[in-house]
Write a structure and sequence with these properties.
Number of helices: 11
Largest sheet: 6 strands, mixed
CATH superfamily of the largest domain: Periplasmic binding protein-like II
Strand order of the largest sheet: 7-6-8-5-9-11
Structural class: alpha/beta
Radius of gyration: 20 Å
CATH topology of the largest domain: D-Maltodextrin-Binding Protein, domain 2
Number of strands: 11
CATH architecture of the largest domain: 3-Layer(aba) Sandwich
CATH class of the largest domain: Alpha Beta
Length: about 300
C-alpha cells in the first residue's frame, strides 16, 4: 500500500527508480499501438460515452495532460522513460484511459510531479495523475479520485529454494513458517485468512527479515505486492516473489484529479469501459503478473 504503509514502502519509489534493470526494455511486453499523431480515438472510431463527456473539459483545449512521478519506476513505468509508449502498468492504463476519453498520439502530453505536491490542495497542471495513489477519505477532501483501477494484493516472497516456491493455493501456505512486517495489514491477513499452523514471526525491518530467511526461521514473507517487488528487487538479494494471492487486495488505487474536476466522471466512464471490455484485466495481468513474474496463488 504505497504511501500508507511504513517507511520501507515510501522509500521504494526512490530506490527502485535508481536501481532499474538495464535489461527491462528487452524484457518488457510490446507497447500498445499508437494512433496517427494528432488524432483522437473519437475521430478515428466514433466518440465513446467517455469521449463525449470529456469534450471541452481538459486543462488545455484538445489535449489531455497526464502526470506521472519524478522519477517513475517499474513495473509502473519502465526505465523512467516515455510513458506515452505504454510501457509499464500505469503507463498502459493511462494510455488506455486517454484513448477512451478521445485522445491519442500528439493529443496526449505528459508532465512529471512529486508525489506530495500532486496530492496537495490547489490547482493542478495535469488532467489526471497516476502514482499508485491509495484512495483514502483524508485525501479525498482535497483532491478527486477516480474509481479504482487496481487493488494491491498480498504476495508471498522468499529465498529461491524455499518450500513456498511451489505454493499454488492458500492451503499450500498453511504449513509454512511465515514472516510479516510490523504495523502492516499483512499481519491480519496471515492470521485471519491464511491461518498458518505456526504463529507468524513479526519483524521490524528488512534486515531482520533477511536474517530470518537465511537462518530458516521462516520459509517466506507475506506483504503487499508492491512491497514484495521492491524488497526482492532492491533489499534482499537472492529472493523472488512466488505469487500474489487471489482476492487478497485491500488498498485500492485511483487516478488523481483536481478537486471537483469536471473530468472525474468522464475518467470513471473510461475506466468502466476498460473493465467491461476486459482490457484493464489484460493490462494488469501483463504488467503486475507476467512482467513481475508473480503468478496468482489461488484462494481456493
Amino acid at each position: 500500500m504505497r504511501r500508507t504503509l511504513p517507511a520501507l514502502l515510501i522509500l521504494a519509489a526512490v530506490v527502485l527508480a535508481a536501481c532499474g534493470d538495464d535489461d527491462d526494455d528487452d524484457a518488457a511486453p510490446a507497447a500498445t499501438t499508437a494512433a496517427p499523431p494528432g488524432t483522437t480515438a473519437a475521430q478515428a472510431s466514433g466518440a465513446s460515452a467517455a469521449a463525449d463527456c470529456a469534450a471541452g473539459k481538459t486543462i488545455e483545449p484538445d489535449k489531455l495532460t497526464i502526470a506521472t512521478g519524478d522519477p517513475a519506476f517499474p513495473p509502473y513505468v519502465i526505465n523512467d522513460a516515455t510513458p506515452e509508449d505504454g510501457q509499464g502498468f500505469e503507463a498502459a492504463v493511462a494510455m488506455a484511459v486517454a484513448r477512451e476519453l478521445g485522445f491519442t498520439g500528439a493529443a496526449v502530453t505528459w508532465v512529471r510531479t512529486p508525489f506530495d505536491a500532486a496530492i496537495a490542495p490547489g490547482p493542478k497542471n495535469f488532467d489526471f495523475n497516476l502514482q499508485q495513489y491509495g484512495i483514502t477519505p483524508e485525501r479525498a477532501q482535497v483532491v478527486d479520485f477516480s474509481e479504482g483501477y487496481y487493488t494491491a494484493p498480498q504476495a508471498v516472497f522468499g529465498l529461491a529454494g524455499s518450500p513456498a516456491a511451489s505454493a499454488s493455493t492458500i492451503a499450500d501456505l498453511k504449513a509454512l513458517k511465515i514472516g510479516v512486517a510490523a504495523g502492516t495489514t499483512s499481519i491480519t491477513y496471515v492470521e485471519d485468512t491464511i491461518q498458518p499452523d505456526q504463529d507468524p514471526l513479526i519483524f521490524n525491518d528488512n534486515a531482520a527479515a533477511k536474517t530470518a530467511l537465511e537462518s530458516n526461521q521462516i520459509d517466506a514473507v507475506v506483504s503487499d505486492l508492491p512491497t514484495a517487488i521492491y524488497i526482492t528487487t532492491v533489499e534482499i538479494e537472492g529472493t523472488k516473489v512466488f505469487g500474489q494471492i487471489e482476492g487478497s487486495g485491500t488498498d485500492e488505487w485511483g487516478l488523481l484529479l483536481a478537486k471537483d474536476s469536471p473530468l472525474t466522471d468522464c475518467v470513471n466512464l473510461a475506466l468502466q469501459a476498460l473493465k467491461d471490455s476486459g482490457e484493464l484485466d489484460q493490462i494488469t495481468t501483463t504488467w503486475m503478473s507476467d512482467y513481475t513474474q508473480a503468478p496468482v496463488i489461488s484462494a481456493g
